[in-house]
Write a structure and sequence with these properties.
The chain has 264 residues and is of the alpha/beta class. It is 34% helix and 14% strand. The chain is built from 7 helices and 8 strands; from the N terminus they run βαβαβαβαββααββα.
C-alpha cells in the first residue's frame, strides 16, 4: 500500500551512498524550528491522532528511537498513537541520546529489540527520528533476521550535514564520551572516521528483505533535507513542517500507518 498524495515526493538526491562518510555544516536557517509547538497543537486537532482514517495494525512490534539529545519522553505521543492503531510499541530504553551509538545499541537497544521480538514472536519495525533513524538503519543492517522495516524521520542517512549549532553540540558530546569511556571507545568515536560496528554497518546496504521509508521536510532547520532521502522515489516522502516537529506531524503519522500496514 502506498501513502496518500498529501505527502509530496522528490526523487532526486545530490549525493551518492559514499556521502554517508561525509560530515559538514549546512547553510540552513534554524529559526523555523521554534514553530514545532504549533505542530503539536495541530496533531491534537487531527483525526489521524485518534486512529481515524488510517489503516490499523495487528499487534506487530514497533520500537521508537529518539533523536540527538532526545529521550523516550520526546516520542511518547508517537508511542501512544501506535498503540491506539493496533501495534505493540516499545520505547527505546536508551535514556538521553548523547552517547556512543555503538554502546547504545550494544547495551540498551539490543535488549529492547530482543524483548520486542520475543513478545511478538515475529520480526519488528523500527521508527527513528533524526539520529535515531540512523541508529535504526544500523540496527537493521546488523540484525536483518529480526527487523521487518525501518522508517526514518528527518534522519541524515546519506551524510551528516547539519546546522552549525548541532555540529558544535556534537563536538561537546564527543568530548564527553571520550572523557567518560576513555579506552572503552575508539579514538574516532562520534566522527565519520570511526570503524565501530555502528558506522561499519551504515556503510553496507540494508538487505532487500527490509523495507525502508525516509520521511523528510524541505523546511528542516537542523539537517540538510537532501541527505535524508534514500534516493528511491517510492520510499522517500516529503511533508511540510519542522525537523523537531516530525514526531508530532499528522502527515508523518499517516505515512507511518500506511507504510506499516503494507508490511502486515
Amino acid at each position: 500500500m502506498r501513502a496518500k498524495a498529501t505527502a509530496r515526493r522528490r526523487a532526486t538526491a545530490p549525493q551518492s551512498a559514499k556521502s554517508r562518510n561525509h560530515k559538514a555544516e549546512a547553510d540552513i536557517s534554524i529559526w523555523k524550528e521554534a514553530l514545532f509547538g504549533a505542530e503539536l497543537l495541530l496533531l491534537y486537532a487531527s483525526p489521524v491522532y485518534y486512529g481515524l482514517g488510517v489503516p490499523h495494525g495487528n499487534g506487530s512490534g514497533v520500537v521508537v528511537i529518539p533523536g540527538f539529545l532526545g529521550t523516550d519522553l520526546y516520542v511518547t505521543h508517537l508511542h501512544a498513537w501506535l498503540q491506539r492503531i493496533g501495534y505493540r510499541p516499545y520505547l527505546s530504553g536508551i535514556g538521553l541520546n548523547a552517547e556512543c551509538p555503538n554502546l547504545l545499541i550494544r547495551y540498551r537497544l539490543a535488549d529492547t529489540i530482543d524483548k520486542a521480538v520475543k513478545d511478538t514472536g515475529r520480526k519488528i519495525h523500527l521508527v527513528g527520528h533524526s539520529l535515531g533513524g540512523i541508529i535504526a538503519r544500523s540496527l537493521a543492517a546488523q540484525r536483518p533476521d529480526d527487523i521487518d522495516s525501518v522508517i526514518s524521520l528527518g534522519a541524515p542517512i546519506r551524510g551528516a550535514v547539519l546546522h552549525p549549532s548541532v555540529v558544535n553540540a556534537a563536538r561537546i558530546v564527543r568530548a564527553q564520551i571520550l572523557t567518560t569511556h576513555g579506552g572503552g571507545v575508539l579514538p574516532d568515536c562520534y566522527t565519520p572516521r570511526c570503524t565501530c560496528n555502528f558506522l561499519s554497518s551504515l556503510r553496507c546496504s540494508i538487505p532487500k528483505t527490509i523495507a525502508e521509508t525516509a520521511i523528510y521536510t524541505c523546511d528542516d532547520g537542523i539537517v540538510d533535507w537532501r541527505y535524508c532521502k534514500t534516493g528511491r522515489a517510492e520510499d522517500d516522502f516529503e511533508v511540510p513542517g519542522t525537523h523537531v516537529g516530525l514526531v508530532f506531524n499528522p502527515s508523518v503519522y499517516t505515512i507511518i500507518a500506511e507504510r506499516l500496514a503494507a508490511m502486515e
